[in-house]
Structure prediction request, 81 residues.
Amino acid sequence: MPHPVRPRRSTTVAPVPGALLLCYTDGLVERRGEVIDTGLDRLVATVRADTPEVVCATVMSDAADASPSDDVAVLAVRRHG
Prediction:
């Protein structure tokens, strides 16, 4: 039986100048035996508005597990003002 086709929803967001968008996979914040809120708190404490290169390097060195059990990918985009 085919699945019903649902329309996709989209939202447009206009970030303010200087805003930073950080995208990441769950491997960055999830750890076995740890509540996900702990990983999210660790990430929030790590991220600072800087160049995308610095943000990604800082997140990978300070928030990522040294020996992750899952794939980790990070993408940062910053709007110039």
In short: The chain has a mean pLDDT of 90. Residues 53 and 70 are 22 Å apart (CA to CA). The helical segments are 36-46, 52-62. The first helix runs from residue 36 to 46.
